[in-house]
Amino acid sequence: MTPGGRPAPARLAAARILALGIVAPALAGALAVLGFAPFYAWPVPIVSLAFLFAAWERSVTARQAALSGYAFGLGFFLAGVSWVYVSLHVYGEMPAVLAAAATFVFCAFLSLAPALSGWLVVRFGRDANARLALAPAAFMAGEWLRGWIFTGFPWNTLGTSQVPSSPLAGFAPLLGVYGVSLLAAAAAALLVALFRGHAPPRTRLAIAAGAAALFLAGAILRQVEWTMSAGAPVSVALLQGNVPQQLKWRDETRIAILEEYRRMIFAANAKVVVLPETALPAFLDQLPPDYVESILDHARATGKEVVLGTVERDASGPGEAYYNSVIRLGGQGPASYRKRHLVVFGEFIPIGFNWVYAFLKIPLGDMARGAKDQAPIEAGGTRFGVAICYEDLFGEEMIDFLPAAQVLLNVSNMAWFGDSLAPEQQLQASQARALETGRWMVRATNTGVTAAIDERGRIVARLRAFTQGTLVASVTPRNGMTPYARCGNVAAWILAAALFAYGARRRRG
Question: Which candidate, 370, 377, 378, 375, places its Cα nearest to that of 325?
Answer without folding.
Answer: 370
